[in-house]
């Protein structure tokens, strides 16, 4: 017995070493079944908490990248929605507008009327009579005067001046442009901005018989040829009845928050030239 | 600074360095055609830099703790622990072979370039690190089928690890030598 203890004391380090190595191999062999995995893995609580903190930190640094990727994702989804919109339901079979693609190697058929381009807002004003937004896209990126600009939530404005790398957008907070707008039931009228706050728009002289409730959505129409149809402009926040003629005055809250605008989409209407051509044909009587 | 606090701090720093920074760096310098990735391992440095007179059983336990900590972060149950325990066991023998005096004569000192010199320190750390890598990568692949690729991995990873270790040593060694 004494010898045994002596041997243990003599080879204590070797025994400890062998024991620990065996423990390691036991851990390794257990790692591939579900129960053993919990002993040593990043799923256990303490390590999980540390990793969560680290990922929170990492997330903060990659916010910009995440934003850009979301923007592109949105662009793709909007494009897809547009493809459904252009299916002409008046006919039995869908009319598809085939547009020539510049890329000749692959046969791509574009059905959508609109091409979306993403842009970042680099300058913004909300206090003037005519408010302009500067975006970081220009003619080099295919921006042309007259293209409409929308944000993730609603209508923003129209491209007014373009340089090689930048463009300035006349926002709908302006005296210069009135936006043709419609309610859900189809009543249409143009909106005006009263130069006061970027939070209030007006639609004047709505007919009495239009049934309007507080909270109704107001969309753009395609009548003005300037904006794409069915983009949300805002929601009705207040209804006033003009006592002289009994017509309704609507106060709208715009869907876009102009004070904190960061990313916008610029829309190119592929059918624009064709429409304009048609409008310019003198009407013969 | 107290030797215990110093080593606990070093443990934390090295684990954080390894797990949060070096683990992200996946290299494939020479193993490009095989597509095998490897990570530089710096954490064995903690074992290498423990004081001279640390008893072997403590080295083993510390090595196991370090290995299991790194393992739990990397979800490689036991692999790092296995390799680290091995070098912790062999550390004393290697030092005994390299140092001119008995280890118990170096009181309150740790292996460093200052008291070992460049060449012995590089031999000491290089030997243990390459052993660690060899064991780790062998266990990781668990076969000798792609022996060439395994050796390539060990070699490339060893070179990068040593680079990082030298950088660490240069950064965290107090330079109180007056250059005349």
Task: Please give the structural blueprint.
The complex is a heterodimer of chains A (285) and B (180).
Chain A lengths: L1 H9 L1 H19 L14 H17 L1 H23 L28 E11 L7 E4 L12 E3 L4 E8 L4 E5 L7 E4 L5 E6 L7 E6 L10 E4 L11 E10 L6 E7 L8 E7 L2 H9 L5
Antiparallel strand pairs in A: 1-2, 1-12, 2-5, 3-4, 3-12, 4-5, 6-7, 6-9, 7-8, 8-11, 9-10, 10-11
Chain B lengths: L2 H19 L23 H4 L7 H19 L4 H20 L14 H4 L1 H24 L5 H26 L8
Helix pairs in contact in B: 1-3, 3-4, 4-6, 6-7
Describe this structure in words.
The complex is a heterodimer of chains A (285) and B (180). Chain A has helices at 2-10, 12-30, 45-61, 63-85, 272-280; strands spanning 114-124, 132-135, 148-150, 155-162, 167-171, 179-182, 188-193, 201-206, 217-220, 232-241, 248-254, 263-269. Chain A has 285 residues and is of the alpha+beta class. In chain A, the strands form 2 sheets. Chain A has a 6-stranded antiparallel barrel with strand order 1-2-5-4-3-12. In chain A, a hairpin with a 7-residue loop joins β1 and β2. Chain A is elongated and about 115 Å long. By secondary structure, chain B is mainly α. Chain B has 7 helices and no strands. In chain B, α1 (3-21) packs parallel to α3, α3 (56-74) packs antiparallel against α4 (79-98) and α6 (118-141) packs across α7 (147-172). Chain B starts with a helix and ends in an 8-residue tail after the last helix. The chains are: A alpha+beta (285), B mainly alpha (180). The interface between A and B is medium-sized, with 24 and 24 residues.
């Amino acid at each position: 017995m004494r010898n045994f203890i002596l041997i243990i004391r003599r080879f204590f380090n070797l025994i400890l070493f062998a024991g620990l190595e065996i423990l390691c191999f036991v851990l390794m062999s257990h790692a591939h079944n579900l129960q053993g995995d919990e002993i040593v893995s990043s799923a256990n609580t303490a390590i999980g908490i540390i990793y969560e903190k680290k990922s929170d930190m990492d997330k903060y640094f990659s916010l910009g990248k995440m934003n850009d990727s979301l923007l592109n994702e949105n662009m793709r989804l909007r494009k897809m929605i547009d493809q459904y919109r252009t299916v002409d339901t008046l006919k039995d079979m869908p009319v598809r507008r085939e547009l020539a693609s510049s890329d000749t190697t692959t046969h791509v058929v574009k059905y959508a009327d609109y091409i979306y381009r993403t842009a970042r807002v680099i300058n913004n004003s909300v206090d003037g009579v005519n408010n302009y937004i500067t975006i970081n896209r220009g003619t080099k990126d295919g921006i042309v005067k007259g293209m409409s600009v929308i944000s993730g939530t609603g209508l923003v404005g129209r491209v007014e001046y373009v340089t090689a790398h930048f463009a300035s957008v006349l926002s709908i907070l302006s005296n210069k442009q009135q936006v043709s707008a419609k309610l859900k039931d189809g009543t249409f009228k143009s909106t005006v901005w009263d130069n006061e706050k970027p939070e209030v728009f007006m639609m004047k002289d709505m007919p009495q018989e239009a049934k309007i409730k507080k909270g109704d959505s107001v969309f753009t129409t395609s009548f003005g040829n300037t904006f794409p149809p069915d983009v949300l402009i805002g929601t009705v926040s207040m209804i006033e009845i003009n006592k002289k003629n009994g017509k309704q005055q609507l106060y709208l809250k715009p869907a876009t928050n102009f004070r904190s605008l960061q990313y916008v989409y610029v829309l190119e209407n592929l059918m624009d030239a064709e429409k304009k051509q048609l409008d310019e044909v003198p009407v013969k009587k | 600074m107290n030797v215990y606090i110093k080593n606990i701090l070093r443990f934390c720093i090295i684990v954080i360095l390894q797990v949060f920074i070096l683990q992200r760096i996946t290299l494939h310098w020479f193993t490009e055609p095989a597509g095998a990735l490897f990570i530089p391992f710096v954490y064995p440095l903690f074992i290498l830099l423990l004081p001279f007179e640390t008893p072997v059983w403590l080295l083993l336990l510390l090595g196991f703790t370090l290995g299991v900590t790194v393992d739990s972060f990397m979800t490689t149950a036991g692999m790092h622990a296995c390799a680290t325990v091995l070098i912790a066991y062999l550390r004393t023998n290697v030092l005994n072979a390299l140092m001119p005096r008995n280890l118990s004569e170096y009181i309150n000192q740790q292996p460093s370039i200052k008291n070992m010199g460049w060449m012995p320190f590089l031999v000491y750390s290089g030997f243990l690190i390459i052993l660690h890598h060899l064991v780790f990568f062998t266990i990781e692949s668990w076969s000798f089928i792609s022996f060439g690729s395994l050796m390539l991995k060990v070699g490339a990873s060893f070179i990068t690890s040593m680079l990082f270790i030298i950088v660490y040593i240069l950064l965290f060694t107090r330079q109180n030598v007056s250059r005349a």
